[in-house]
Amino acid sequence: MSGSLAASGLSVRYETPHGSVHALRHVDIEAHPGEVIGIVGESGCGKSTLVTALANLLPANARIDGAIRYNGVDLAKLDAHRQRLLRGDEIALVGQDPMTAFNPVLTIGDQLIDFQHHRKDFSRAQKRARIAAMLGRVGIADAERRMRSYPHELSGGMRQRVAIAAALLTDPGLLIADEPTTALDVTMEAQIIHLLRELRREYNGIIIVVSHHLGVIAELCDRVYVMYAGEVVEGGEVDAIFHDPRHPYTQALLACDPARFHDRLDRLPTIPGSLPSLTQPPPGCVYAQRCGRAFAPCKTIAPPLVKLTACHAARCHAVTP
Amino acid sequence: MSPLLAVEDLSVSFVRSSLLDRLINPFPLPGFNVIDGVTLSLMPAETLGLVGESGSGKTTLARTILGLVRAAAGRIVFEGREVATRSDFRAMRRRSAMMFQNPVASLSPRLRVGTLLTEPQVIQGLPMPDRRAAAKALLALVGLPASFVDRFPHELSGGQARRVGVARALAMKPHLLLADEPTAGLDVSVQGDVLNLIGELKRELGFATMIVTHNLAMIRHVSDRLAIMYLGRLVETGPTQEVFSAPLHPYTATLIRSEPIPDPRRRSHNLAITGEIPSVFRRPSGCEFHTRCPLVQSRCKTEAPVYRPMGADRLVRCHFPLQTGGQEREAVTRASANQRGN
Asked: Do the domain assignments include residue B229?
């Protein structure tokens, strides 16, 4: 089963002894089966909170407003038991750290069998056969032997492949990869990007890739949402985001990436200033303090989401269609 | 001009035979060289980028240079004098500094920033009339407010902790700064900040820098020369711009081609390299890169290549180095396109 995903007006705040932290504010995103969606932003932008909310894994002190509709069902309103059923069946998560994704005292094979716990229709032998096939698909040679290995016997890149296999074994309609290559070397990163790209040909669900690495996003995604300080500031097709960015933050973020410059720079570009406080978000635009194009209303009025083309939109006062 | 630092044929071996080992096994296994025959030099005020994947031994090399890891063979010459004994290293460490990989973890959580910053002078027994003032001067040097002297490391952001790391490394006015992954874990907008700071202080104070990293996109903007490591050996050295525009070693070429490009119009559709860096315990025979090399020939499997000069200022350890013409690199592209998957 695969359906569309849409978050509308999604806000998440964490209640802490020091006040509420508004980690996510009025976020609208949508994703359709067969799409690879990128979520890019720097640390503190709320991308992890967003994917945790999508996977229904927010901690107990989180308060959600708005709706997350998956296949027509509002995930935020489901009871705990129904949420539990969706997670691991329909929604799978590949984490950032392949070192801690597995239980160190169980073999890979045993853990991958457990990942299929909801598939009551398969026997243990059938599950093992599925695992062997899936390990082959993610590029692990000698699957039978690997199933008898313990996680520490595998390298980081291999473990990330197994984590992807584990996620796909559940036939999810929504696969969330949270910084899938951050812990890996560049040669292994290239291989995982290649693997994800190959997999999407046969996979018809939604893939959401979260990364701070612009290169990974550009290589993999169809559409991209750029986040800053808990808001989606710009969203659009990957080509529009990288070649016609309209929000000043997207432009600044792209300008900072040293990989975009071929010749040696004497000074690397930076974004001066720092993130606004998430306990007391500014009344106007979240980027106004650091923005070179800010004018009077930016400080006081929250900018509307300006629609630029059918699927390109930016949240900025200075942007006109 | 004589080099500030010269490393000659340096090897590090991680097999230590304890007394018990020797009793059980009187014929110990040959040592596994984590670093094997590394030769490189660093000129005063130069920036050298030491690049490689994890497991290539780049951090171990940096630590060995400062005497934190014992070398099994080879020579280290710093400012014209050989560094061999413990007291030599201690004297060398007074004029050199290291920025360790994890900035927060390398600062003691129980000490305030002010204490941390002046610790090097105290350890080296240098006179310091006003510790607080000295700490404030260092904070000003790296652009942090003086009020930070009373902060604890956990109260700093990643970028601020790096700045404290820079200040602490420069407290002794070193002639040599070794920075181990100075920007790992930082956002791109902050990464530029830290590197610009190191660059500015370098121009001002004139120290030489060795940056250990796996981040190619960053190192091409901040280094004068590059040394590429693979499995404990240098495979190529040369001026940064030349290495990037015309890599000689197939490994360097694949490393550059593996870097994801932040441009959806230039997606790379074939894989530059497959497989993983082998373990030093099972070092491949001949050229250690032959198991992954897209241009491997039969000679590479049996005969280890020597380190040979190419052109004015470049060295490469390969039997069949890529020439500066386009032909060979096209061959790499083709060969790797045929080798897809795993």
From this structure: yes
Q: How high is the ipTM of this complex?
A: 0.86
Alpha-carbon distance B95 to nearest alpha carbon in chain A (angstroms)? 26
Does some domain include residue B324?
yes
What average pLDDT score do residues B279-296 get?
87
A258–B268: do the CB atoms touch at under 8 Å?
A: no
Contact predicate A172/A134, CB 8 Å: no
* A278 part of contact set with chain B, CB < 8 Å: no
Q: Quick: pLDDT tens for B124-160.
A: 888 888 889 999 999 998 989 999 999 999 998 888 8
- pLDDT of B339 higher than 60: no
Are the beta carbons of A215 and B260 separated by less than 8 Å?
A: yes
| Torsion-angle region of B285 (φ positive above 0: left; ψ -120 to 50: alpha; else: beta) | beta
Which residues of A are less than 8 Å from B276 in CB distance? Answer: 155, 157-158, 187-188
Q: Nearest-CA residue of chain A relative to B273?
A: A187
- Residue B248, both tokens: 């000689």
For residue A3, is pLDDT > 90? no
pLDDT at position B253 over 90:
yes
Does residue B246 fall inside a structural domain?
A: yes
CA–CA distances in Å: residue B192 to residues A182, A255, B179: 19, 11, 15
CB contact under 8 A, B263 and A270: no
DSSP annotation of A87 reads B
> Which of A:205-224 have CB within 8 Å of B?
212-219, 221
> For the segment B183-216, what is each residue's pLDDT rounded down to a tens digit?
888 888 888 989 999 999 999 999 999 999 999 9
Closest-CA distance, B90 to chain A, in angstroms, reads 34
DSSP structure string for A6-71: EEEEEEEEEEETTEEEEEEEEEEEEE-TT-EEEEE--TTSSHHHHHHHHTT---TTEEEEEEEEET
CATH number, domain at B220?
A: 3.40.50.300
Q: How far is CA A123 from CA A119, A130, A168, B323, in A?
A: 9, 11, 18, 57
Range of the domain at B57: 5-95+174-338
Q: How many domains does chain B have?
A: 1
Quick one: tokens of A191? Answer: 């291989």
Say yes or no: A258 contacts chain B, CB-CB below 8 A: yes
CB contact under 8 Å between B216 and A186, yes or no, is yes
A219 and B258: CB-CB below 8 Å? no
pLDDT (tens digit, 9 = 90+) per residue, A271-298? 988 888 888 999 999 999 999 999 999 9
Within-domain flag for B296: yes
**Whether A118 contacts chain B with CB within 8 A:** no
